[in-house]
Design goal:
Elements (H helix, E strand, L loop, with lengths): L4 E10 L8 E15 L4 E6 L9 H12 L7 E7 L9 H16 L5 H13 L2 H9 L2 E5 L4 E4 L6 E7 L6 H6 L7 H20 L5 H4 L6 H4 L6 H10 L4 E4 L6 E6 L3 H7 L1 H4 L3 E5 L6 E4 L1
Parallel strand pairs: 3-4
Antiparallel strand pairs: 1-2, 1-11, 2-4, 2-5, 5-6, 7-9, 7-10, 8-9
C-alpha cells in the first residue's frame, strides 16, 4: 500500500428495531485506515475516544483474517482516523474488525474476497447485523452461523437522523439486560415485523416501516439504560419519521426520514439527545479502497 491507498469502513446500525441480531444498515460515516508492513506492529489513532496499543480491534481483525488463510500475520504499522462515536450503538467495533480483516485480504492478494471478509469478521464479532452492512453496504439481512448475508434494496431520498446522547452503553451491559426467555406472543410480534423490512424495501412501500421497526425483544428491556428512549421513539414517529429504533445496543436513537421531515424529526429528538449531538447521515456503502 505504501501509504497511498486508504480503506474506508462505514458505521452501522444493527437490529432496526424488530430484526434483533438479523438486520442492519450502513451509514455514510467512515472509519479511515492506512497500513504498511513494518518491523513490528504499531498503531496510531485519531478521532472519537481514546484507543491505543497493538491489541486494538483493527490489528485483531487483521490477525484473524491471516489465520483464516493459514498465513503468518506479518507486522503492520496502522494509522486510523475514526469519526464513529464509541460505545454508542453505531458499529464502531464492527467497523474496526472489518477493517482489519479487509487489510488481511489486501495483503494476501485478495485471497479472502468480500464474502471471506464477512465470514471471518462475523465469526470474531458475533453480531452479523453490524458486520454485514459494513462489508456490503446499505440494508442487509444476515446470519452468523451459517455465515450468510443478503443485501436489501436501498431506498432513495431518505436519511437517518441520529440522536447521540453524551453517555455510553457498553454492549456487555446491554446484553446482560436481556431476559433468557420471552413470551411466545412477543417473539411472533417481532418475527412478523422483521419480515416487513425486506418486503417494504423491495416494494417501495416505506410507510410500512413504521410498523416494521416496532420491537418487544430488546428495546423495552434496555430502556432503563437509556432514559426516555421509548418516548423519544414515539416522538420521532409522531414527527413524521418512517421508522425509529435504538441503534444496536444504544444509546443512539436512529430515525429514518424523508428530506422534508428531517427538521421536525431532529427537533423531536432534542430532549433525548440532551448534551450530545445530532447527526444526519445518508445510507452508506460497504468498505472500499481509495487512492490518496
Amino acid at each position: 500500500m505504501e501509504g497511498k491507498v486508504r480503506l474506508y469502513v462505514p458505521a452501522t446500525l444493527a437490529n432496526l428495531g424488530s430484526g434483533f441480531d438479523a438486520l442492519g444498515v450502513a451509514l455514510d460515516l467512515y472509519l479511515e485506515v492506512e497500513a504498511e508492513p513494518a518491523r513490528e506492529d504499531a498503531f496510531f489513532y485519531e478521532g472519537e475516544g481514546h484507543v491505543e496499543g497493538t491489541d486494538n480491534l483493527i490489528h485483531q481483525g487483521y490477525r484473524a483474517g491471516m489465520r483464516a488463510l493459514g498465513l503468518p500475520p506479518e507486522p503492520l504499522r496502522i494509522r486510523a482516523f475514526n469519526p464513529i462515536p464509541l460505545a454508542r450503538g453505531m458499529g464502531s467495533s464492527s467497523a474496526a474488525l472489518v477493517a482489519g480483516v479487509a487489510l488481511a485480504d489486501r495483503f494476501s492478494g485478495g485471497s479472502l474476497g468480500r464474502e471471506g471478509v464477512f465470514r471471518v469478521a462475523a465469526g470474531v464479532e458475533g453480531h452479523p447485523d453490524n458486520v454485514a452492512p459494513a462489508v456490503y453496504g446499505g440494508f442487509v439481512a444476515a446470519l452468523a452461523e451459517p455465515p450468510l448475508a443478503i443485501p436489501l434494496p436501498k431506498p432513495q431520498g431518505v436519511y437517518f437522523v441520529l440522536a447521540v446522547p453524551p453517555y455510553e452503553v457498553p454492549t456487555p451491559l446491554a446484553r446482560a439486560a436481556l431476559p433468557a426467555k420471552v413470551p411466545l406472543k412477543d417473539a411472533v410480534f417481532n418475527l412478523a415485523r422483521s419480515a416487513l423490512w425486506p418486503a417494504a424495501l423491495s416494494s417501495g412501500r416505506l410507510e410500512a416501516l413504521r410498523e416494521a421497526c416496532r420491537d418487544r425483544l430488546h428495546q423495552v428491556y434496555r430502556a432503563h439504560l437509556m432514559p426516555g428512549i421509548l418516548e423519544a421513539i414515539e416522538g420521532a414517529l409522531k414527527a413524521g419519521a418512517l421508522a425509529a429504533f435504538v441503534g444496536g445496543a444504544g444509546p443512539t436513537l436512529a430515525a429514518l426520514a424523508r428530506e422534508d421531515e428531517l427538521e421536525e424529526v431532529a427537533k423531536a429528538l432534542e430532549d433525548y439527545r440532551g448534551q450530545g449531538r445530532t447527526l444526519v447521515l445518508n445510507i452508506g456503502e460497504g468498505y472500499f479502497w481509495k487512492e490518496t
